[in-house]
């Protein structure tokens, strides 16, 4: 009886397996004969899930092998979902710029499992809600005129960062021990800045660390469980109840911390807008820790026209605030660690940069100002080389094809998930001289990166911020923060290696791609002049 059941199951599964295998091998053709990109055969129902269960670094190594075998555009399957990986810069440009509207959507994710309607800028479907949210962020928070409002906040965080690093260095010397890793200090400082920009309040250290812990718990849950939860939601809801509960707990903790801060801005807005109380509120001095503008303020003004002109719910604002904090903290602190690690490893580059800083600012200024950085081409070259050599994200957030499209001779079927290998494009030896070396001079006149367009509108050579309609809205402020903090860290300290401890550039995957062995450095305060 058992043998008969096995034979029956085999007979039922064979046609499905044949269909899946045919689709994986690119049998389906487009109007011009284009075929779905090739890829390895998979198992019925599972597809290539067993290949993709590995860590990010293992997946990158797998993709390199697949590209060597099948070409620069490869197909993999997870269940019934077709995932296409593009590592060729020209095909990527054709897809993201030439066919931008057709690839501007995001894959559906199992947000309903966590009570999330998906109304965030990075993950919303391409449509009116996404356009409204992105336009609000760009115009009301990231526009240069708004960014200037946060200049005092950046100066405060610069002082906090310098004081923390200086204190840690002095304690290490006094106790004759190795200095601690700098990454947590970088992350804390960047998080202070983004919390202030988000909620309009300069919080004390315990409050900031509580929010940071809640954010980290949420990010770790999503990073570890996203693939499993998305595979078969009806099944994973049952099989992974414990893991799902961790996600719900992490989201609940975010709400506990964020909603009171959102409510405080809502009450402040009511007072300022009130014809009775507005004058008194405007004349009354605010706390020294309160800023006049914040991201939350802009969210309070949003109305969703297609949904009865309603305001955003607290739940939606919590999600958007979480996104804002994540986008501006982890990527910037990760890039900052990689750049400073390269400057420790390459002292001649650090000294050349310091020479440019001294020439631009002299020895009298308290800090390298934001306007000063505009006169420092080598500083910009150092930051760009850091983003090329060590992009914080090795893949863009996945795109989804809204219709059948053909790019580079390949068919991308409607509904397919499309991924782009950021790191591999920046390391392409056909486009870059010595791509694995840290050479900022490549971005100066005469170098192979001279005039590089990081927006990718003309061509793609490196895409640390993405390309096309879904390009990172925070590109400008990210470059500002990196240039500002790198310049001030080099002006304040000489960054030297720890004796007997080589700077190790091996990568590991957390929420971003970070140093597996976090950077430690001896910091020596520079004398003025």
Automatic annotation (TrEMBL):
PROSITE patterns: CYTOCHROME_P450. It is found in: Membrane. One of its GO terms (molecular function) is heme binding. InterPro entries: Cyt_P450, Cyt_P450_CS, Cyt_P450_E_grp-I, Cyt_P450_sf, Plant_metabolite_P450s. The keyword Transmembrane helix applies. It is a single-pass membrane protein. Belongs to the cytochrome P450 family. This is Cytochrome P450. It comes from Setaria italica (Foxtail millet).
């Amino acid at each position: 009886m058992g043998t008969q059941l096995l034979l029956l199951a085999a007979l039922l599964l064979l046609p499905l397996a044949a269909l899946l295998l045919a689709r994986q091998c690119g049998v389906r053709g487009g109007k011009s004969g284009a075929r779905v990109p090739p890829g390895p055969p998979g198992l019925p129902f599972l597809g290539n899930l067993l290949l993709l269960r590995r860590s990010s670094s293992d997946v990158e190594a797998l993709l390199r092998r697949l590209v060597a075998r099948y070409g620069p555009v490869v197909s993999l399957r997870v269940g019934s979902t077709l995932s296409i990986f593009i590592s060729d810069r020209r095909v990527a440009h054709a897809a993201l710029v030439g066919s931008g509207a057709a690839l501007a959507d995001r894959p559906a994710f199992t947000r309903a499992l966590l009570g999330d309607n998906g109304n965030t800028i990075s993950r919303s479907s391409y449509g009116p809600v996404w356009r409204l949210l992105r336009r609000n962020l760009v115009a009301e928070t990231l526009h240069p005129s708004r960014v200037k409002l946060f200049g005092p906040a950046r100066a405060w965080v610069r002082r906090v960062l310098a004081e923390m690093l200086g204190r840690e260095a002095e304690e290490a010397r006094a106790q004759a021990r190795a200095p601690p890793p700098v990454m947590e200090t970088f992350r804390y400082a960047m998080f202070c800045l983004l919390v202030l920009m988000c909620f309009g309040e300069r919080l004390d250290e315990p409050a900031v660390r509580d929010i940071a812990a809640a954010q980290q718990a949420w990010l770790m849950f999503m990073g570890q469980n996203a693939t499993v939860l998305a595979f078969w939601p009806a099944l994973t809801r049952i099989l992974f109840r414990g893991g799902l509960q961790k996600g719900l707990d992490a989201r609940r903790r975010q709400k506990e911390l964020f909603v009171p801060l959102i409510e405080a801005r809502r009450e402040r807005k009511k007072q300022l807008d009130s014809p009775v109380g507005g004058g008194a509120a405007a004349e009354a001095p605010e706390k020294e820790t309160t800023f006049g503008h914040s991201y939350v303020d802009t969210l309070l003004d949003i109305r969703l026209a297609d949904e009865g002109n309603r305001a955003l719910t607290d739940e939606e604002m919590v999600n958007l605030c979480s996104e804002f904090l994540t986008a501006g903290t982890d990527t910037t602190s990760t890039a900052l660690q990689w750049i400073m690690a390269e400057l420790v490893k390459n002292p001649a580059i650090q000294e050349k940069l310091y020479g440019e800083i001294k020439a631009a600012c002299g020895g009298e200024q308290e800090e390298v100002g934001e306007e000063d950085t505009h006169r420092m081409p080598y500083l910009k070259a150092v930051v760009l080389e850091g983003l090329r050599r060590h992009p914080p994200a090795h893949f863009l957030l996945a795109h989804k094809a809204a219709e059948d499209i053909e790019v580079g001779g390949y068919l991308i079927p409607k509904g397919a998930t499309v991924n782009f290998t950021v790191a591999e494009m920046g390391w392409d030896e056909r486009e870059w001289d010595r791509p694995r070396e840290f050479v900022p001079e490549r971005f100066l006149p005469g170098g192979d990166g001279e005039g590089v367009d990081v927006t990718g509108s003309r061509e793609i050579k490196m895409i640390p911020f993405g390309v096309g309609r879904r390009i990172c809205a925070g590109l400008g402020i990210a470059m500002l923060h990196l240039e500002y903090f790198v310049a001030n860290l080099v002006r304040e300290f000489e960054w030297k290696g720890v004796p007997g401890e080589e700077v190790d550039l091996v990568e590991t995957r957390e929420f971003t791609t970070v140093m597996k062995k976090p950077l430690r450095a001896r910091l020596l305060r520079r004398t003025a002049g």
